[in-house]
Amino acid sequence: MLLPLTDADGIVRDLRYATADNLLGRPIYTQAVALLRPAAHAALLAAARRAAVLGLRLKIFDAFRPLEAQWAFWEAAEDKSFVADPRTGGTHPRGIAVDLTLLDAATGAELAMGTGFDAFTPLSDHGRLDGLEPEAIRNRTLLLGLMTACGFECYPPEWWHYHLPGREAYPALSAADVPGGPM
Asked: Annotated site (Transition state stabilizer), which positions (predicted)?
């Protein structure tokens, strides 16, 4: 079962793979819907509440990704270290992963993170210190703290990617498994 993120959740949705503004340059999803397993949904809402206390909001770029979409990314990626092999399922097709950033709640502006979302470069690494402004390092650390405090783990090469641990407990799903899903 997957639950949708809605306006009532207070999380901004900018689902890039439902638009041409993504690494493939074309829409991958036919619907702009963000779905998560109940445990991931609850953890994300907890992170959103923590962010709100700090005057911040979460902005989601991607959540559940059907295996068909995972295959499209796998086949297009030159550097496979930034895309999970669909044969092993990854975490997005399991409904336990989100790609996100932080916004200033008062202005709606994205906080500086040093690179854009889906920037497949060494500068996107969570541990990167050189080549980044101190503000970007601070903001990445803030996002890391919010997400890990609520049960998520990071994917070290991508500052924007978080997932729940224990992926084996959640089977990977195809588009046919999720009526009303993004594809």
From this structure: 65
- Residue 99 in domain: yes
- Please confirm, yes or no, whether 158 is among the known catalytic residues: yes
DSSP 39: H
Q: Which residues contact 46 (CB under 8 A, 6 or more apart)?
A: 150, 151
67: CATH: 3.30.1380.10
Consult the annotation and say whether 41 binds a ligand.
no
Classify residue 165 by burial, with Cβ atoms within 10 Å: 0-12, 13-18, 19+: exposed
| Least confident among 3-17, 32-46, 83-97 | 83-97
Q: Can you give the residue range of the structural domain that contains 85?
A: 3-177
- Structure confidence by residue, pLDDT tens digits, 99-115: 999 999 999 999 999 99
In order of 27, 69, 115, 158, the CA distances from 72 in angstroms are 11, 5, 23, 19
Tokens representing 69 are 């979409």
The answer to the question of whether 130 is labelled as a binding residue is no
Token representation of residue 58: 């979460």
Per-residue pLDDT tens digits for 129-163: 999 999 999 999 999 999 999 999 999 999 999 99
Q: How far apart, in whole angstroms, are the C-alpha atoms of residue 122 and residue 158? A: 9
Candidates 75, 78, 158, 168; catalytic one: 158
